[in-house]
Automatic annotation (TrEMBL):
One of its GO terms (biological process) is regulation of DNA-templated transcription. It comes from the Bacteria. This is DNA-binding NarL/FixJ family response regulator. Pfam families: GerE, Response_reg. The modification 4-aspartylphosphate is found at D54. Residues 147-212 form the HTH luxR-type domain. One of its GO terms (molecular function) is DNA binding. It comes from Allobranchiibius huperziae.
Length: 220
């Protein structure tokens, strides 16, 4: 069972998401928070697997709440709700450790699958959109601290897989390109996460860009 906490200052959004998710047999909405401070407090009490986090909330915004929550509860994943109209907020969410993004108008059928995807750590949400945001994020940020020794610990095949992850390929696409099974790809990815000390695919992609393994292709 995947435990979900919904943080949004709009009651209608929280209610709609809860009704959609509670209809799924493997998803359990364990709480709702109307602002970031409540989300941090409730996460400490309820230990959700995923927090669906709005950005613009009173008391404590979603960026600060994400940073606090992940510092205290590193195994929890945060999915940011965004309209993509305010890219600086999205960049800040990436820096704070968010694992993915959902549009506020996400289709009901896609919402549950998106949370399962993030929980499994198998693929980014909306790979083309998230990849673009990460490229812009990296291009506008100082080079981060991915130690060369960490990247050097990767095998040649693991580096190859990391590049494919950074380019937005799914596990199945990577398996097809490398003529291996999806299970083998999952093993490579697990080892990449461990060696780079990252929690999920989004953070691994940022690490690949920051280490210079992949170059941003930012549109003017």
């Amino acid at each position: 069972m995947i435990r979900v906490l919904i943080a949004d200052d709009q009651d209608l959004v929280r209610t709609g998401f809860r009704l959609i998710l509670q209809a799924e047999p493997d998803l359990d909405v364990v709480g709702e928070a109307a602002h970031g401070a409540a989300a941090v407090r409730m996460a400490a009490q309820l230990h959700p697997d995923i927090v669906v986090m709005d950005i613009r909330m009173p008391v404590l915004d979603g960026i600060a709440a994400t940073r606090q929550l992940l510092t205290a509860h590193g195994t929890t994943r945060v999915v940011i709700l965004t309209t993509f109209d305010f890219d600086e907020y999205v960049f800040a969410a990436l820096a704070a450790g968010a694992s993915g993004f959902l549009l506020k108008d996400v289709k009901a059928a896609a919402l549950a699958d998106a949370l399962r995807t993030v929980h499994a750590g198998e693929a980014l949400l909306a790979p083309s959109v998230t990849k673009r945001l990460i490229e812009r994020f990296v291009a506008h940020q100082p080079v981060a601290s991915v130690a060369p020794t960490s990247l050097g610990n990767l095998t040649g095949r693991e580096r190859e897989v990391l590049v494919m992850i950074a380019r937005g390929l799914s596990n199945d696409a990577i398996a097809s390109a490398l003529f291996v099974s999806p299970a083998t790809v999952k093993t490579h990815i697990s080892r990449i996460f461990a060696k780079l000390d990252v929690r999920d695919r989004a953070q691994a992609v940022i690490a690949a860009y920051n280490a210079g393994l992949v170059k941003p292709e930012v549109q003017a």
